[in-house]
Amino acid sequence: MAKQKSYHPDTLAVRGGLHRSEFDETSEALYLTSGYVYGSAQEAADAFSGACARFVYSRYGNPTLSMLGQRLALLEGAEACRMTASGMAAVFAVFASLLKSGDRVVASRALFGACHAILTQILPKWGIESELVDGCDLGAWEAALSKPAALVFVESPANPLLDLVDLAAVGKLAKRSGALLVVDNVFATPLGQKPLELGADLVIYSATKHLDGHGRVLGGAILGASALVDEVIYPFMCRTGPSLSPFNAWVLLKSLESLPYRVARMADSAQKIAEHLERQCPELNIRYPFLASHPQYQLAKRQMRIGGSVLAFEIAGGQDAAFGFLDNLDLIDISNNLGDAKSLICHPYTTTHSGLDDAEKHELGISEGHIRLSVGLEHPDDLLADLLAAYSQH
Ligand SMILES: *Cc1c(COP(=O)(O)O)cnc(C)c1O
């Protein structure tokens, strides 16, 4: 581990956490097993008393999951990592293990739909209050965090309009209010933004997105200091069972090998497409963190290393025009997923954000004409040609 920390991300993505079995296999082994056997009754007793550290049951741990967790921790620069069955399982395990009745959570309003539902519908049932603020407005954060809070939850860039939160500034305010800062880093990926270096206490991923990146498996991850991840969140996970399947862990291990290349290529293509569309069709109001026209461009350049793979734009003429545009696409698929090798496009108003009422959508600036594009690994010229052809016909 000590030596591995000095390697570049490309090397860590391929080699990090690799632990070969007695058979010296080249590729990471898939330990598709729910349980483990003991050489003696005493060995079993020692395993359960903690006298010897070993695998006892795959709800607690599995060698394939350990390799994946170590690899991802090295890529993130985190002390500890625990994998979960989905991104939402990661979000929920963090909330449920760290919060208690009477606590207060402050979160940015622009959130993934299911995260929004946990904060506004599930946690209040257990006496946990949540306050949602405009994540772009430091004054709003300052006001909300002038009172004590237990946890601050943010997504940056946020779905679907790529609004940013100043992680370093909010981290300082969170600390002052006694809160832990938890960052959902899905859109930025471990290559694009390092929340732990900016003052976050925990980073969460939906591994379903770029970490798999081939549209195959669900997964999630929680990263941070061992004192939090291993000592507080992991015991909760062992008992409540949001465990990732070893098969999915193995798929994700192989995916991570190409993550730095995929993410760099997707971001490069997204940047090209955003710049070209902005030049040729300025009326589309392109949103992309690394476009100088993004309202938080300076912040994006400060806290992100790449602009990410997702961009948003707005078609004049509302829902009918947006649907017409989507239906005209030939190459790009209509889908609500993102971070995939295949470019995917969606109409947030009627899909990913349909759970919000109209007032909430308008508060977030999401209109009937908005489109979210997740740029994949196809050639950017082919993607651009598809977008321009569909736009000219709509
Ligand atoms: C997809 C997503 C999630 C939820 O992850 P699942 O793997 O679908 O459970 C949470 N946050 C963000 C930003 C996401 O894009």
Q: Could you characterize the architecture of this molecule?
A:
The chain is globular. Helix content is 40%, strand content 13%. It folds into 2 domains: 4-30 and 61-256, Type I PLP-dependent aspartate aminotransferase-like (Major domain) (Aspartate Aminotransferase, domain 2), CATH 3.40.640.10; 259-393, Aspartate Aminotransferase, domain 1. With 394 residues, it is α/β, with parallel strands linked by helices. α5 (113-122) links the parallel β2 and β3. The protein has a 7-stranded mixed β-sheet, with helices on both faces. It has helices at residues 9-15, 41-49, 63-76, 87-98, 113-122, 138-144, 167-176, 189-192, 226-240, 246-256, 259-280, 297-303, 318-328, 358-363, 380-393, and strands at residues 80-84, 104-108, 129-133, 151-155, 180-184, 202-206, 220-224, 310-314, 333-334, 344-346, 370-374. Pyridoxal-5'-phosphate binds at residues 86-88, 112, 115, 155, 159, 184, 186, 206, 208-209, 218, 220.
